[in-house]
Amino acid sequence: IKERARTVSRNVSRRTQCRQALLSPDGAKLACVSGTGEVELIDTSDGTVVWKSETLGKRPMAMHPIIQLMGLGVSALDVRAAVQMAFTPDGSYWLAASNLFGDGEAVIWDTRAARTVPLENSLKLMKQRGFSLLGSGSVLIPPQRQAGESLIVSFPSGVEIDRISLPVARQ
């Protein structure tokens, strides 16, 4: 017997539009970055905001892209860095980081326990460097400069698992 995938549709009402959105693998949570820079994690079953930051999505971009955009007539006040977001494949954690150029902010949210996870040990580097999710229990934190070592870090513990160096491309 062949089973068919079930499609569920839900309406989630918001006061403002999302300029970035990410749905958890199970469809239970929606991460939304509004045009004003607020970041919300929403329970899609009832529209409840379970986590909110008024600063994570308001981080400014690096100066070089801002200068280029200002040349096109865009106000520097309207330019915001993208919020890097990911859900683990099993939906148990949501990770987010913003402003990968220094004074950044990052969060890990445990969706099952409904609480933030402290950024311990090497996970603190997500604030400045960002991350790439490697699966349900680890992230890759890129090097501070183009050449350097990337870290593979477990979470939520923040314990460094490995370091890898990638060759720098020659021009």
Helical residue percent band:
under 10%
| Uncertain stretches | 61-66, 75-79
Largest sheet: 4 strands, antiparallel
**Count the helices. How many?**
2
Percent range for β-strand residues: 35-45%
Question: Would you kindly provide a written description of the structure presented here, covering whatever features stand out?
Answer:
It is a single chain. 23% of the residues are buried. The longest helix has 8 residues, at 63-70. Residues 61-66 and 75-79 have low confidence and may be disordered. Strands 1-2-3-4 form a four-stranded antiparallel β-sheet, with no helix packed on it. The protein has a four-stranded antiparallel β-sheet with strand order 5-6-7-8. Strands 9-10-11-12 form a four-stranded antiparallel β-sheet, with no helix packed on it. A hairpin with a 5-residue loop joins strand 11 (149-154) and strand 12. With 171 residues, the protein is mostly beta strands. Helix content is 7%, strand content 35%. The protein is built from two helices and twelve strands. The radius of gyration is 18 Å and the shape is globular.
How would you describe this structure in keywords?
171 residues, 2 helices, mainly beta
List the SSEs and their pairings:
Layout lengths: L17 E6 L5 E6 L4 E5 L5 E5 L9 H8 L12 E5 L5 E6 L6 E6 L4 E3 L8 H4 L2 E2 L4 E4 L7 E6 L5 E6 L6
Antiparallel strand pairs: 1-2, 2-3, 3-4, 5-6, 6-7, 7-8, 9-10, 10-11, 11-12
